[in-house]
Write a structure and sequence with these properties.
There is one protein chain. The chain is mainly beta. The chain has a single domain, classed as Immunoglobulin-like (Sandwich). The chain contains two helices and eight strands, in the order E-H-E-E-E-E-E-E-E-H. The protein is rod-shaped and about 105 Å long.
Length: about 150
């Protein structure tokens, strides 16, 4: 069902951790997000980890079976008196693209976001579901006519 995901995602994520963060702790370019993809009966479930992201900062697009999820983690606004002591959580834009197979019904995707996890449920297309094919034997299809 999932054709492929972005190649070199782990290598890219490591490179960004080493070289991509600015001194303020924000990412200079989009970064990946952890994902699980599971087939569950007649649906395909994809879960993205997005801790600390508001639901209104998530954007989901599908174009030609390419699923793109973008999310932005914004800094916490504690007012003018707040002084940062430690910054380890990356801020900025996170993105992920997955290439979906034709066997999925991308017109009926359901998205839910709870506790920092975005869950997409994509039904398996009817044309891709297993089905029985009725076999008709030659004798069954021929009708004999008896004349008197």
């Amino acid at each position: 069902m999932l054709m492929r995901s972005e190649p070199f995602t782990e290598a890219s994520r490591l490179a960004q951790q080493l070289f991509g963060a600015s001194s303020a702790g924000t990412w200079s370019r989009p970064t990946g997000m952890p994902v699980d993809a599971i087939r569950n009966g007649d649906e395909f479930v994809i879960a993205f980890d997005l801790p600390g992201v508001d639901a209104d900062a998530i954007d989901i697009d599908i174009e030609r079976n390419v699923l793109t999820v973008r999310a932005e983690r914004r800094p916490i606004d504690l007012g003018e008196q707040a002084v940062t002591q430690l910054t380890e959580r990356p801020l900025g834009v996170f993105s992920r693209q997955l290439f979906l197979g034709d066997a999925l019904d991308t017109d009926r995707i359901d998205a839910a976001y709870d506790n920092g996890v975005l869950v997409l449920r994509i039904p398996i297309a009817e044309k891709a579901k297993p089905r029985k094919v009725n076999v008709v034997g030659r004798q069954q299809s021929e009708q004999k006519v008896i004349s008197s």
